[in-house]
Write a structure and sequence with these properties.
Blueprint: H1 4-88, H2 91-151, H3 168-208, H4 217-230
Helix pairs in contact: 1-2, 1-3, 1-4, 2-3, 3-4
């Protein structure tokens, strides 16, 4: 006749497997929610500093343009002086003109690089702004998907809803509530798992006649099978 204790342990084993699966699902939802929440906070920070960075980039373009204009004028003057010095035949004057020409040429090249860098930086900022706008839509859609998934879980209660055009701040607020709700749900599921493990360990201890080391319900069931096989 089947041992009733083994049947109980096998029930506990199945329950533990179900709870472990639920715990894994909650952990996966928590990780996904944190990715959305942290992404929203990153976007908030980016959008907050973007106006100042755009203004700074515009100033840099203007300053680089003025520096380039000045460097171009100096170089043009140096070329004229060099041409004039070459006609004089005076080697000292010619050497000085050549040195001045080299310095202004190098300064012009530096100013050109600075101007290109300023333009590139401004372009990168605009690209980041466009990417941020797209990311806002993606995060909002992802948050709504997760909200639907959480809504199907009786343990998780999140009051904040996600509108289709949710801002990063709205997504972040939802993410904060989802995080708290999932932590509560995880605590409940983990407590159920621990209760199942305690029941299984108590039953295994009764079977072997002495306390057993902490083990899962599956381990306790296996221990009972080995014990029954020896009797």
């Amino acid at each position: 006749m089947p041992d009733r204790r083994l049947a109980i342990l096998e029930d506990l084993e199945r329950s533990e497997e179900e709870v472990a699966a639920e715990l894994a699902e909650v952990d996966a939802l928590y990780a996904a929610g944190e990715q959305v929440r942290l992404g929203a906070h990153d976007l908030i920070a980016l959008l907050e500093r973007l106006p100042d960075e755009r203004e700074a980039a515009e100033r840099e373009i203007e300053e680089a343009a003025r520096a380039l204009e000045d460097a171009g004028a100096l170089f043009e003057n140096a070329e004229q002086e060099l041409a004039a010095a070459e006609k004089t035949g005076d080697q000292e004057v010619l050497a000085a003109a050549r040195r001045f020409h080299i310095r202004t040429r190098d300064a012009l090249h530096l100013a050109e690089r600075r101007a290109r860098a300023a333009e590139d930086h401004a372009a990168e900022l605009e690209a980041a702004a466009r990417a941020a706008e797209e990311h806002v839509r993606e995060l909002s859609a992802r948050a709504r998907e997760l909200a639907d998934a959480l809504g199907r879980r009786p343990r998780v209660a999140v009051e904040t809803e996600i509108p289709p055009d949710a801002s990063p701040a709205q997504v972040a607020e939802w993410g904060t509530q989802a995080r708290a709700a999932l932590l509560v749900a995880r605590g409940q599921v983990a407590a159920e798992r621990d209760a199942l493990v305690r029941q299984a360990n108590e039953l295994a201890s009764n079977v072997v006649g002495e306390p057993v080391g902490a083990m899962s319900a599956a381990g306790a069931a296996d221990l009972l099978r080995r014990t029954l096989d020896r009797t």
